[in-house]
Amino acid sequence: MTHPESDIKTFIPSRTALVYAVLAGLWIGLSDRAVALLVDDPQLLIQVQTYKGWAFVLVTAIILYCILRQQVLSWEKRTQDLIDREKQYHFLVDKSPLPIFIQTGGSFSYLNSQALNLFRASSQEQMLGKPVIDHVHPDFREKVKQRIQSLNRDKQEVPALEQVFTTIDGKNVDVNVQAVPFNFQGQDGAGVFVQDITGHKKNQEQLRAWHDLMQYIIRHDPSAIAVHDRNMNYIYVSQRYLDDYQVTRDVIGRHHYEVFPEIPDKWRQVHARALQGEVISSDDDHFIRPDGSIDYTRWQCRPWYKADGSIGGIVLYTEVITRLKQTEIQLRELNQSLEQKVRERTARLEELNRELEAFSYSVSHDLRAPLRSIDGFSQALLEDCHDQLDDEGKDYLQRVRSATQRMGHLIDEMLKLSRISKAELKPLPVDLSQLARKVCTELSQENPDHHVDIQIQETLTAQADPALMEILLENLLSNAWKFTKDNPDAAIEVGQKVLDSQEVFFIADNGAGFDMQYAQQLFAPFKRLHSADKYPGTGIGLATCARIVKKHQGRIWADSEPEKGTTFFFTLGGGEN
């Protein structure tokens, strides 16, 4: 930096002396010659010489004044220019986004605002005069001392160095430092330019951690994954990939075609297409191993992109599915075998159904005729030979008639159960409330001496087969009617409630009830939990109910307690599987 004091000490005095010497010599030489030529009188010559001296002094004074004034004005202008430039320099340095400081003699001589912030100082006074080395991390002090010595000795810029500064409150800051020789206020030193790279170092560490995590994830991924750059060199690879393709060497950085020199041309074309941005995949492919064995695979090849949107390379996802393929073949063969068995069993079932239909026809026609004959002839004997039979004989014939009639009723119920099992389901909207009222009216008419308090909830509807719903309600309500006959305050309720978040229909009575330990037998054909003498029936009704509910993809169950009544619950799925 130039100083005005040196200018005034050297530039102005030297020029002034030179001008004065030249003018004085010219004046003395020329004026003495002129006076000698013009004045002969010695007395007058003395006076003239005296006046000439004073004139010389006056003229030289005026000339020197003009010269000095011009020089001072020039100096003032240059000084002001230097001051302005120095202010601009200080402004630019202080406003620099980079921390900058000047060291002379190894101590801080100047710091811009960013440098103060870097060292967490609030003013210049906290840092000026303090050794720079005190704010260098101990791990880097020896190297920084060597750099300072080299800079002072060679007067040349030293290369950038990553190191660690220590702030005045003891914090460590990662920095990149570059220094150049600099003379500050007449002292040799260095201008030091600092870049705070703490954030950059953290980002690098984070990127390194993500990179390591990516490598870890890919290496241990259960899928076979290989990542290549645009030149088909390996970047990442999973262990599964190495195992599946029997690669025992390290492949990172190596060319894919070097690792697999005999790779088919179709794969080279796939790679080229993926490097153009296409995603190619196959769910059923195969490849031949070096030993000639064939393995099946499914794969996908897609490009990966850099931050600028350009294609950086390709990612190959593969899975060896040889075992899966073998299992698929075995399953296909097993399915074919099962289909054959299903066809055979279907044919057998169709044959059994035909036999069952023939049996049903036989039961309906061939068995009914003998029963009607037995009942008819028994009735004829009672009527025609009434007077010839004693009371015991009449009782025997009456028992025969009752047995044949029960057998006929049992056959009817069995046929009904069979027809329900084979009937085609025709679901429609059904008003169960109205259907229940109809059934209860018929039961009241059939049993006028049995008075029952009937409660039927309104708007009970279901999507079901109307005919089967009528049979279901007939069986359940006639059951409730039958088992409440000994209760003078008989009551039956038909309704709907929510159990376990599901809408459930129920028919409850306060009749005889039963022990729940026998509940599993309740819906089996011909199973009875009460005496036939006290509560007559065939044991088919509840089995029929179970068939109807099952046909609607529903569920039926009961809750009961002896002498306190029974509640039957059922749900309706609405259709047949």
Question: Can you put this structure into words, describing what you see?
Answer:
Residues 362-576 form the Histidine kinase domain. Residues 317-355 form a coiled coil. This protein folds into five domains: 4-92; 98-196, Beta-Lactamase (2-Layer Sandwich); 202-320, PAS domain (Beta-Lactamase), CATH 3.30.450; 330-402; 424-570, Histidine kinase-like ATPase, C-terminal domain (Heat Shock Protein 90). It is α+β, with helices and mostly antiparallel strands and 577 residues long. Helices cover 50% and strands 21% of the residues. It has helices at residues 4-38, 42-94, 113-118, 141-154, 198-220, 239-244, 256-259, 265-275, 322-384, 391-422, 432-446, 466-483, 541-551, and strands at residues 100-104, 107-111, 158-166, 172-184, 187-196, 224-229, 234-237, 280-288, 294-305, 311-320, 428-431, 453-456, 461-464, 491-499, 502-509, 556-561, 565-570. Helix 9 runs antiparallel to helix 10.
Strand percentage: 15-25%
Tell me the major beta sheet. Answer: 5 strands, antiparallel
Average residue pLDDT? 81
How do the strands line up in the largest sheet?
A: 2-1-5-4-3
How many domains? 5
The CATH level-2 architecture of the largest domain is identified as 2-Layer Sandwich
CATH superfamily descriptor of the largest domain: Histidine kinase-like ATPase, C-terminal domain
Tally of separate helices: 13
Query: Can you tell me the overall shape?
Result: elongated
From the 3D structure, determine the CATH topology of the largest domain.
Heat Shock Protein 90
Order of helices and strands: HHEEHHEEEHEEHHHEEEHHEHEEHEEHEE
Structural class: alpha+beta
Count of DSSP strands:
17
